[in-house]
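Ticket #4471: structure export looks truncated?
Reporter: QA, pipeline team
Priority: medium

Steps to reproduce: submit the single chain below to the structure queue and open the exported record.
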Amino acid sequence: MHLQHTMMNRRGNWPRNCSVVIVALPIVLAFACSRKASPEPSPAQSASASNSVEIPPIASDPAPGSGLFPQEPEVSDAGQENTSTCPAEMLLIFKSKRAYCIDRWEAILVDKSTGTRLSPYYPVDRKLALKLETDWSAKRLTMGSDEARAMPIPPLPAWQKSHDADPMAVSKPGETPNGYLSGKVARVACENAGKRLCSPEEWQLACRGTKDRQYPYGDSYKQGSCNVFRTSHPAAILHENASIGHLDPRLNLVSDKDGSLLRKTGQTKSCSSQWGDEALWDMVGNLDEWVDDPDGMFLGGFFSRSKRDGCASVVKAHPNNYFDYSLGVRCCKDP
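Actual output as written to the record:
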């Protein structure tokens, strides 16, 4: 991503008696000229954004108090200072010659045109959601313990029963994130928000934080620090078999002795990927998150996944049209 401010004379040359200062990201060419130089207008030219940013060496330090462009603050490698290039719900990641925005929290889904909140317990497709509601209202009476059979199916909202939703991803704290996302729906939801799926490299870099750690909270695994590797599995509780019934709309409503298996976004305070004074939440655990891969890939692990590899957790076993209760998304965006 390059942002250039030019001050050239009408012949296309730099004015005499000027010094050039280059400041990294946004890249600004600033000029401190002597009184002998003729002042010229300095139009800004914005180049297209890129995921890979080549940072030129700093030519010299700016003269004290001579900030010609104070509206363009310098960005530190920690990525926490200039978040103005990203929407408020996103964090600017600037490290290892990369610069991009990423959602702070796992996504909820709304309908793009109306803003209607879509149920986190059903897939977006209206006909499929209706079928699952009907099927599981009957199936729940034949599977699992008496207590499990007594647990009702969450109702599909009336709006979703009568409308075909166009999903849009929204990143907010304190919300139940949407599961039941396929990779294809995750892509559409991010694009409808003016964003995109993160690349695997972007996702993992963000997860590891400024200190480049395998886990959001440190260098070694700590059970319970993120909402992953729970002692319970929702399908085992409801169906007495963890390998079946993964489209049951009740799965993300199940609790165990430690509380709800699926937690609200940002609820697990110890599971924060630190970037200076800022953070990203639940990048390990809660829901697996789709990333941009032609063959299908999701990262991070969900609440009952039996993995202790933190930010390195990768699943490639399912194509992009696959979905179940454990799959969600967070989006990226070019600054």
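Status: closed, not a bug. The export was complete when the record was re-opened. Leaving a note from the reviewer for reference: The first strand starts at residue 3 and ends at 5.
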